[in-house]
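In response to the reviewer comment on reproducibility (Comment 2.3), we provide here a single inverse folding case reported in full, input and output, so that an independent group could reproduce the run without further information from us. The structure tokens appear first.
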């Protein structure tokens, strides 16, 4: 595991605690944070090919370490442009298939400029997927299926998150992210 004092990891942990767990955007995240079963990988690459090499290594790491529940693949230098980041996400999803991890892992994506298709750039709903740094969340599908099976109305999680985001408003989230980047 990487040095947890790396600024990219510190920012990501603050975001997890304040937004993802603090607002209950992911009702399953707190357990993994408390149990220390999240792998944080800082990827300094700026080229898609090199980032994908590291991403493949993280898939292999997760496969070999069942005690690690999930990986946050944090792009510390590259992929600041949202469109370029979306290319990375597409290639990473293709790579999962090519490496035989389809049905084993899935990717959730987070980016500082995340915009849901069809939404206005300023819509607060985008903050459900806005993070301090471009991040690919590598999730074990089997584990996700297990927790969703016992969660009451899991299909309402995204709707609830959007409603809460809009209730809080964009300025609320902008302030949190600004504070995280100041530290």
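Designed residues, in position order:
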């Amino acid at each position: 595991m990487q040095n947890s004092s790396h600024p990219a990891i510190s920012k990501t942990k603050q975001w997890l605690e304040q937004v993802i767990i603090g607002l209950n955007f992911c009702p399953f995240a707190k357990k993994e944070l408390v149990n220390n079963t999240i792998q944080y990988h800082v990827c300094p690459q700026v080229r898609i090919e090199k980032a994908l090499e590291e991403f493949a290594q993280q898939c292999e790491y997760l496969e070999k370490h069942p005690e690690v529940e999930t990986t946050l693949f944090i792009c510390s230098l590259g992929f600041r442009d949202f469109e370029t980041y979306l290319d990375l996400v597409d290639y990473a999803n293709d790579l999962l298939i090519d490496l035989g991890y389809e049905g084993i892992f899935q990717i959730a994506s987070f980016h500082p400029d995340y915009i849901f298709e069809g939404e206005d750039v300023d819509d607060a709903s985008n903050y459900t997927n806005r993070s301090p740094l471009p991040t690919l969340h590598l999730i074990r599908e089997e584990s996700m299926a297990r927790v969703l099976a016992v969660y009451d109305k899991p299909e309402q999680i995204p709707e609830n998150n959007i409603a809460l985001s809009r209730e809080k408003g964009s300025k609320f989230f902008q302030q949190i992210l600004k504070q995280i980047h100041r530290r």
